[in-house]
Amino acid sequence: MRIELLVQNIGELATLAGPPEPRAGKAQGDVEAVNDAAIAIAEGRFVLAGEEKDVLESDHDFEGVEVIDAGGMAAVPGFVDPHTHLVYGGDRQAEYVERLSGVPYVEILKRGGGINETVRKTREASSDELLESVLKRANELLRNGTTTVEIKSGYGLDVETELKMLEVAERIGEESPVDVVTTFLGAHTIPVEYKGRRDEYVKLLLEEMLEKARPHADFCDVFVEEGAFSVQEAERILGRAKELDYGIKVHADQINPSGGSELAARFGAISADHLDNITDVEMLQLAEVGTIGVLLPGATLFLKSSSYPPARKMIETGVPLALATDHNPGSSPMYSQVLMMGLSCLLFGLTPSEALVAATINAAHAIGSDQIVGSIEPGKNADLVVLDRPSFGYLPYELGRTPVSMVLKGGKVVYRRET
Ligand code: NIG
Ligand code: FE
Questions:
Q1: What is the pLDDT at residue 1?
Q2: Which residue's alpha carbon is at the smallest distance from atom 6 of ligand 1?
């Protein structure tokens, strides 16, 4: 195999290479850093990564190969963002002001605003309009080092618009350098036109939407919360999703202890997300099944949540943790996994190493992409972030600054910061 690209003079390389299972407990913080490192890439994949002298002394021929000089700075795998709602029309800036004045999120949702407001705007927007706005958002993700993103539907809440959203998400995967994994979230809330007839909307999900969305989505998610879906409704929806062979995800215990995490464990979910109000018993249940806890510190902060996910306790209990932006217009209009790492350290007590694992390899596990992304290992996609700081420890440290100087996707430079 001919090496096509050599990234050398890496002061500190965190490969995140390791055992195949999600990192939990003490292993949550396992980050081995190699100093004076280099990476060899061919055909869009990593071939070798390690100490520069070992890479250069390997059997490969580096004659005439393209070289990127990392200038002694650090490099980490491309970030994986395993929970976003990136496709939507309009925004909720006005609602933000209202919430700041004290009106609760769930109250706005219950009176037909919030998610419902974004549903109206998303239904109105054409596919092309959505695509144009989402491409810009995908570009923001890239600039922040994210190279793989999960995108949910859930602002259509009718057959046509849910499919439109999923198709736009798929097109983002084709037209932007970012890789996309899709999730069907038709059970995001009861649409206003079904007010007083929630059973009929659940029936529509069960009898039509889940099946029609399946060719366009790998996972099915349900928002289990007051103002959204009850555990009983979610059981029926996830039961049908299992029959259709969807992977299972749950928006669980976000605003109230909703029982969502117990449900996620019972359905063998790949992830349970939010968890600001998870109970001790539920932690044990997630740990036993191996369900990944996806923490969304952007939403916790933006909704001024009074309860934080008990991250340290979850780590002690053995729940593997991942981080995500939850990018959406209502509860987290944020793009940066670097910022999530910073917030998770300050608000939830993660260490920088634990946060890096959570934003890379565990995040890849949370969307079933751990075989192809999330770490720098031979055969995986050559998705790489080069920093302008000498250690990955600076990622969560300089809160609000993104120390990303270059991003490679599949071995190609897709972003380079102008100095
Ligand atoms: O993950 N919790 C439910 N869904 C989103 C919020 C969506 C919205 O407010 O538009 C979330 O926080
Ligand atoms: Fe969400």
A1: 81
A2: 331
Residue for token digits 């209502």?
A: 330
Q: Which residue numbers in the chain have pLDDT < 70?
A: none
State the distance from the centre of ligand 1 to the C-alpha of 251, rounded, in angstroms. Answer: 9
CA distance 100 to 107: 13
Q: What is the pLDDT of residue 371?
A: 98
What is the amino acid identity at position 309? P
Query: CA gyration radius for the chain?
Result: 21
CA of 74 to the centre of ligand 2 (A): 31
Angle at 249 between CA 244 and CA 253, to 5 degrees: 140
CB contact at 8 A, 267 and 252 = no
Q: How far is the CA of 69 from the centre of ligand 2 (A)?
A: 38
Question: 66-69 and 5-14: which strand pairing?
Answer: parallel
**DSSP 8-state symbol, 306:** S
Atom 5, ligand 1: residue with shortest CA distance: 331
| Contact predicate 271/22, CB 8 Å | no
CB-based burial, 146-183: b 16+ in 10 Å, e otherwise: bbbbbbbbbbbbbeebbbbbbbbbbbbbeebbbbbbbb
- Amino acid at residue number 190: I
Q: For the stretch 280-296, what's the b/e string if a residue is b when 16 or more beta carbons lie within 10 angstroms of its beta carbon? A: eebbebbbebbbbbbbb
Closest to 264 measured CA to CA, from 296, 274, 304: 274
Enumerate residues lining ligand 1, CB below 6 A. Answer: 85, 114-115, 118, 223, 251, 254, 299, 326, 328-331
pLDDT the model gives residue 55: 97
Q: Which residues on neighbouring strands pair with residue 413, listed in sequence order?
A: 408
List residues bridging with 183 in a β-sheet: 152, 219
